[in-house]
TrEMBL record:
This is Fumarylacetoacetase. The lineage of its organism: Eukaryota, Fungi, Fungi incertae sedis, Zoopagomycota, Kickxellomycotina. The active site is at H137 (proton acceptor). Pathway: Amino-acid degradation; L-phenylalanine degradation; acetoacetate and fumarate from L-phenylalanine: step 6/6. Its cofactor is Mg(2+); Ca(2+). Mg(2+) binds at D237, K257, T261. It comes from Coemansia reversa (strain ATCC 12441 / NRRL 1564).
């Protein structure tokens, strides 16, 4: 399949096999609306609809779906509609004889260069949940927070552990965040203190957007869950480890994480990721039937290369910190969604579910500085000469997450999820 509407370089994240959705605006058209990235341009989905491109898609009212500042309505339509739109777009982009293509004529009438757009959050996120689905990460953090003997809690291999995050502070890539202030207890023999976090960290994650979801009281099967995940983004679950370690007992993460969570702006659909399915890690003990399902042969993992880079405030270049892969994740995306809804909790279009930090088996794949510096015990070197080091994030450092699936001759990529940490606000308390 070759895009003939615009040029797409082989190393572009946004191949014609990808077609991720996002919400964008431009200086001349400042109202946010639905776009699809291809090569180095963004297609205006509402403009394409006015040319009649999606007229034959049943159940798609273009005005309500594409002339919108968020993707929730499109996410709510479900996989059969997403698939039709995908194949219509591919035909439009690759076939010079396409009737609408002839009517559209020039690229400028339906597309703008990526370098000229402002990206917004892809959806209005009603609820945000974060799982804890990498065995390696859970073991590492458990060892540091609770000691070697309690590293992996007894429930961990039986269910995808998660916590309810804060949807209001999810921000799109490019948004800077201030270092949070909070309560922490640096000396376990003294009372707690208040002030800027001294152990600010990133977490390399991906997150899925829920599609149609489920009615309250009606759980989902694994097969249903498969059809109800719209797509994936990169996510950085910024974490203030000192605030977290002091506050988390016994109810879990709270203010150590809710000051901000960054996501990448382009949502890569599950249909685009289909060719990159792989087996998930072997699950031992065998999960309960609701998390297992009859279709054991289904490949429930995804081979997605992930990287984290840091640009230290006292350095010139980005430096690679983490190189991991979504395939390491113990609990699959569909198991996470099934578990979330099994008690009858209703999931809604645009809900966001983080996978949890994606650490792999070796040190290069550790998805947080907490793990890389082993709770601040060792310095992480950020340049060849060893002159720039970190244990945790410093003010004005930039953290960048990237990810892509590699096929023969093309990529299905995620763009980037970037954020800079600004100094804490002086609260003059
Ligand atoms: O084990 C703990 O107490 C802490 C866990 C976390 O940091 C929660 C979290 O964000 C899970 C994850 O990203 O994997
Ligand atoms: Ca997390
Ligand atoms: Mg967070």
């Amino acid at each position: 399949m070759k895009c003939t509407f615009v040029e797409v370089a082989p190393e572009s994240d946004f191949s014609v096999q990808n077609l991720p959705y996002g919400i964008y605006s431009t200086d001349s058209k400042p109202v946010p609306r639905v776009g699809v990235a291809i090569g180095s341009v963004v297609l205006d989905m509402h403009a394409l609809a006015t040319y009649g491109l999606f007229d034959k898609v049943e159940g798609l009212a273009a005005e309500q779906v594409f002339n919108q500042p968020q993707l929730n309505n499109f996410m709510g339509l479900g996989r059969p509609v997403w698939r039709q739109v995908r194949s219509i777009l591919q035909n439009f982009l690759c076939n010079d004889d396409n009737t609408v293509r002839k009517r559209v004529g020039d690229v400028e009438s339906v597309a703008v260069p990526l370098c000229n757009v402002h990206m917004h959050l892809p959806a209005q996120i009603g609820d945000y949940t974060d799982f804890y689905a990498s065995r390696e990460h859970a073991t590492n953090v458990g060892m540091m927070f609770r000691g070697k003997d309690n590293a992996l809690m007894p429930n961990w291999t039986h269910l995808p552990v998660g916590y309810h995050g804060r949807a209001s502070s999810v921000v799109v890539s490019g948004t800077s965040l201030h270092r949070p202030n909070g309560q922490r207890r640096p000396d376990p023999n003294k009372p707690p203190v208040f002030g800027p976090s001294m152990r600010l960290d990133y977490e390399l994650e991906m997150a899925f957007f829920v599609g149609p979801g489920n009615a309250r009281g009606s759980p989902l099967s694994l097969e249903q869950a498969e059809e109800r995940i719209f797509g994936l983004v990169l996510m950085n679950d910024w974490s203030a480890r000192d605030i977290q370690a002091w506050e988390y007992v016994p109810l879990g993460p709270f203010l150590g994480k809710s000051f901000g969570t960054s996501i990448s702006p382009w949502v890569v659909t599950m249909d685009a990721l289909e060719p990159f399915r792989v087996a998930q890690p072997t699950q031992d003990p065998t999960p309960l039937p609701y998390l297992r399902g009859p279709s054991t042969a289904v490949l429930a993992g995804y081979d997605i290369n992930l990287q984290v880079h840091i640009k230290p405030h006292n350095g010139e270049k980005f430096h690679l910190l983490t190189q991991s892969n979504l395939k390491h994740m113990y609990w699959s995306l569909r198991q996470q969604l099934v578990h979330h809804a099994i008690n009858g909790c209703n999931m809604r279009p645009g809900d966001l579910c983080g996978t949890g930090t994606i650490s792999g088996p070796n040190k290069e794949s550790f998805g947080s500085m907490l793990e890389l510096s082993w709770s601040g015990q060792t310095e992480i070197s950020l340049d060849e000469s060893g002159g720039i080091t970190r244990k945790f994030i410093e003010d004005n450092d930039v953290i960048r997450l990237t990810g892509y699936c590699q096929a023969d001759g093309f990529r299905v990529g995620f763009g980037e999820c970037t954020g800079q940490i600004l100094p804490a606000k002086d609260l003059a308390l």
